[in-house]
Amino acid sequence: MIFATTPSQTVGPYYAIGLPWPDGPCVVPAGTPGAITLTGTIYDGRGAVIPDHLIEIWQADPDGRFADLRGAGPGGPSRVEGFRGFGRAGAEVGDGSYELLTLKPGRVPGPGRRLQAPHVDVSLFARGLLHRLVTRIYFADEEAANAEDPVLQSVPAARRGTLLAQPRAGGYGFDIHVQGPHETVFFAV
């Protein structure tokens, strides 16, 4: 028997079943020198937390090297012991928050070989979304590098603040607003 194609459905809320794993939120092992914590909350267009989401990050290490097992990344693979360059965290407690243990990334070449500011690439999956949302986390205390970053400079000045993580004790805070007056800038990739 041949069945008709069914319509697309939103992702989740099944993240806790198969996507998270114990080391997922740790881009580096606990105790890694220089490790920071990225924390935040995911909000919908009304300002309510999205309790069931999955956030993935991908980034370079502090020297601008990636966790590339084949050594094909710029400058070769990371030399940081245990650095994966990838992390995944879900809202397991249902309060819309996330927490990732990582290192502050270094600068990497971007469009036109211009150096990009330290940043973390982010994919967000949540109920109500047919496709992931893609954004970046830049660091508010990297003012000079941010002023030179070709991708960040392509964002209207009034919206750039939605991409800046703010320093907090032990790391940085970065909330993501899916819609609404504080909507985070998302990129079409």
Overview of this protein structure:
The chain has 189 residues and is mainly beta. It has a single domain, classed as Aromatic compound dioxygenase (Protocatechuate 3,4-Dioxygenase, subunit A), CATH 2.60.130.10. Helix content is 7%, strand content 28%. The protein contains 3 helices and 9 strands. It has helices spanning 15-18, 143-148, 150-153, and strands at 35-43, 53-58, 86-90, 97-103, 119-126, 133-139, 164-168, 171-173, 176-177. Strands 1, 2, 3, 4, 5, 6, 7, 8 and 9 form a 9-stranded mixed β-sheet that branches. β7 and β8 (171-173) form a beta hairpin. The chain is globular. The model has no long low-confidence stretch (mean pLDDT 88). Belongs to the intradiol ring-cleavage dioxygenase family. This is Protocatechuate 3,4-dioxygenase subunit alpha. Its EC number is 1.13.11.3. GO terms for molecular function: protocatechuate 3,4-dioxygenase activity. It is an enzyme of class 1 (oxidoreductase).
Keywords:
189 residues, mainly beta, Protocatechuate 3,4-Dioxygenase, subunit A, nine-stranded mixed sheet, 3 helices, 9 strands, globular, oxidoreductase, Protocatechuate 3,4-dioxygenase subunit alpha
Give a short overview.
The protein has helices at 15-18, 143-148, 150-153; strands at residues 35-43, 53-58, 86-90, 97-103, 119-126, 133-139, 164-168, 171-173, 176-177. The protein has 189 residues and is mainly β.
CATH class categorisation: Mainly Beta
- pLDDT < 50 stretches: none
What CATH architecture do you see? Sandwich
Order of helices and strands: HEEEEEEHHEEE
Please give the count of helices.
3
Give me the CATH superfamily: Aromatic compound dioxygenase
Beginning-to-end CA distance, first to last residue: 38 Å
Q: Helix coverage percent of residues?
A: under 10%
Form type: globular
CATH topology: Protocatechuate 3,4-Dioxygenase, subunit A
Q: How much strand content do the residues show? A: 25-35%
Overall pLDDT: 88
Q: How many individual β-strands?
A: 9
Number of domains: 1
